[in-house]
Design a protein that fits this description.
661 residues, three-stranded mixed beta sheet, mainly alpha
Length: 661
């Protein structure tokens, strides 16, 4: 109390310029608040500071820093009653002494952030976030002296990058934003044309605590504060970001927004995804969606950040958590839709490359492991490899390695067909010999640590990847057909390669009944697993792409793309028709085969219709190889398939036969 009386006496006179006596004189309040554990003493200090501010606030200059530090310590110490009392003092300073405390803007924002993150009282946290939002309005209006240079441009002696404000007094804008309603930000508001901010030190110094304060609150464990912080952060950037330079936007995205999703980047080591945390279910989607929306709004200014945004979205898509992966796919689709009119060829290349890589990265290669481990006994119950051609990263064609690589990806479907029916005898023999040699050399299962075992955890990850494949294939369909005119030949081939490999993987797995049965016997599933949806969706998209490139006889994407489409049609059509025809002949007791027939029937109908619509000259390139396959479907049980065969024979085959050529 004596210290309070002495401080009141000392503050009767205003501090002279360039002196810091108040800061030293008020330091004991901060020291006692930080080191004294007695709640009554702490409450007395806060009340003493409240009285000092109310009676001597007009004379305080350098002492504001000590006051904010003491109030921050109160917010961290608790209890709730002390937090409410301390925030009341902070709110009074922000309302009644905004002009006097303007030089300590950063300290005020940091203090409000501490109250926003304090877990003792949720209402105080929400009010503190509104106060930080009001501080952002003051800053954007040029009412913070350290962010306002002398009237002039970037070349003024005061240094480039400081906020340039049209000549006006500071009292009017500051008074208006210091009102009670200043916490509400108008979404449609716009900045005066004269206000600009860059990545200069003086600008970053004042904006950084505001934006990072919001971002820290977004990962709060409490739903209401993180929701309010999320709204406040993106409303602030939408309303006031028009004055940001490209370099400052780079700092904001890379230093504030993208780090919000650090847990997604490191999900494998984090408990966040394993526990399906509340943050993922309630905030992750909104946060990433708002980030993509903001990037689309400022794309013309911040287009150089596209690679960073794509990297973040790709990290989400490639997580072994179907919820996060679904969020990533949705945001990728939205990014393309919102930015399509602004994307240049180099941007389209980055988007297509990222989407194709995600499709390849989410292939469930775990299903092709060489060993399957029983989840109860820990013993290896089956050994098999279902890796398709090029499935191993060491043998996968590299993007940009030339059109020959793309052709190899598609032509290799014939290899899959040969080894996928009853199994290529030579290949099956090699596998069997390898297994026998391994069993002879290793007598006990415990010694097989070199085997790559499929555990229950791996299987859950594979299941998530299977779901991601389906939604990602649909997203690629939309990207390809909604923006076909904007895509270059290289973009088309990038997507084409990835979709072809997705089809090859699913087709190979579905063709390997031994592996599928071994997975069921391992106790991972109660039924024989399949990738029928992935196979049907990927080959459907592949056929759509091929006929779009080929059917009109145009070479808008270049001769290489045209020839690639023709070769792919020949290879994929033969594979599908032969596989489907072989299953048609099986007895009705073959339940699994007829399940595959049902899944592929729509694709066969689509293929027959597309072949029917080709010109006679175009179909002539496929007639010799496909005729026998088409005849094999005459007795197909599905009426739509038979109708498709009838139309195809009538349109493409009958004229050729009747002509006697």
């Amino acid at each position: 109390d004596s210290l309070r009386q002495l401080a009141m006496k000392f503050l009767e006179k205003a501090e002279l310029g360039n002196f810091q006596f108040q800061r030293d004189f008020l330091k004991p309040f901060e020291h006692v608040m930080t080191h004294n554990r007695d709640p009554e003493i702490r409450e007395f200090i806060v009340r003493a500071l409240s009285q000092i501010v109310l009676s001597r606030g007009a004379n305080i200059r350098s002492g504001w820093r000590r006051i904010f530090a003491a109030l921050s310590a109160a917010a961290e110490a608790g209890p709730a009653s002390l937090v409410r009392l301390g925030y009341g003092v902070l709110e009074g300073i922000a309302k009644d002494h905004a002009l006097q405390s303007a030089d300590t803007f950063v300290e005020c924002v940091n203090c409000a952030t501490v109250y926003a993150l304090s877990t003792f009282d949720e209402e105080v946290s929400l009010a503190a976030l509104d106060r930080v939002r009001a501080c952002a309005r003051r800053l954007a209006a040029g009412a913070v002296p350290r962010a306002r240079p002398d009237a002039g441009a970037a070349g003024s002696p005061s240094g480039p990058g400081r906020a340039a404000v049209a000549s006006s007094g500071t009292s009017s804008p500051l008074a208006s934003v210091a009102e009670e309603g200043a916490a509400s930000v108008c979404l449609g508001s716009s900045l005066p044309a004269a206000v600009h901010f860059t990545d200069a030190q003086e600008d970053v110094r004042v904006w950084w605590p505001v934006l990072t304060g919001f971002s820290r609150a977004i990962v709060d464990d409490r739903l209401a504060p993180r929701t309010r912080a999320l709204e406040a952060l993106f409303e602030t950037l939408r309303s006031h970001g028009s004055g940001f330079s490209p370099s400052l936007w780079g700092l904001v995205f890379r230093g504030v927004l993208i780090p919000i999703f650090d847990d997604v980047h490191h999900a494998r080591e984090s408990e966040l995804l394993a526990a399906e945390s509340d943050w993922l279910r309630t905030t992750c989607y909104s946060a990433l969606n708002l980030l993509v929306e903001l990037f689309a709004r400022v794309f013309d200014t911040a287009s150089f950040l596209l690679s960073d945004i794509l990297a973040l979205i790709s990290a989400c898509i490639c997580q072994e958590n179907e919820g996060v992966a679904g969020i990533g796919v949705h945001c990728l689709s939205r990014l393309v839709a919102d930015c399509a009119s602004h994307l240049r060829p180099v941007h389209w290349g980055a988007v297509c490359k990222a989407a194709a890589k995600c499709l390849l990265a989410t292939l469930p290669h775990e299903l092709g492991r060489t060993a399957v481990v029983d989840s109860t006994t820990g013993r290896v119950v089956a050994e098999k490899s279902a890796q398709p051609a090029h499935a191993d990263s060491g043998h996968r064609p590299q993007a940009g390695s030339g059109d020959d690589d793309a052709t190899q990806v598609l032509v290799s479907v014939t290899v899959v067909r040969d080894s996928g029916r009853s199994g290529s005898e030579s290949e099956r023999a090699v596998v069997d010999v390898q297994l026998l040699e391994r069993d002879a050399a290793v007598a006990d299962v415990s010694d097989r640590e070199h085997l790559s075992a499929l555990t229950e955890s791996d299987f859950r990850g594979a299941r998530s990847k299977c779901i991601t494949q389906l939604v990602l294939l649909q997203a690629l369909h939309d990207v390809f057909f909604d923006n076909y005119k904007n895509l270059s030949a290289e973009n088309v081939l990038e997507i084409h390669r990835a979709v072809a490999e997705s089809f090859m993987f699913a087709h190979t797995f579905n063709s390997d009944m031994d592996l599928r049965i071994s997975l069921m016997k391992a106790g991972l599933l109660s039924h024989v697993p399949n990738l029928l949806k992935q196979e049907a969706n990927s080959v459907s998209l592949l056929l759509h792409m091929n006929f779009r490139l080929f059917s009109k006889g145009e070479m808008s994407k270049g001769e290489d793309a045209y020839e690639l489409a023709g070769e792919s049609i020949r290879t994929v059509a033969r594979e599908l028709l032969e596989s489907y025809g072989s299953k048609v002949q099986l007895p009705t007791s073959a339940v699994e085969a007829h399940r595959e027939l049902a899944a592929l029937t729509p694709v066969i109908v689509q293929l027959l219709q597309a072949l029917t619509e080709l010109t006679a000259a175009q179909f002539s390139g496929f007639r010799q190889e496909l005729c026998s396959c088409i005849f094999g479907l005459v007795l197909a049980p599905d009426p739509d398939v038979r109708a498709g065969v009838h139309k195809l024979l009538e349109r493409q085959i009958a004229p050729y036969v009747l002509s006697g050529v």
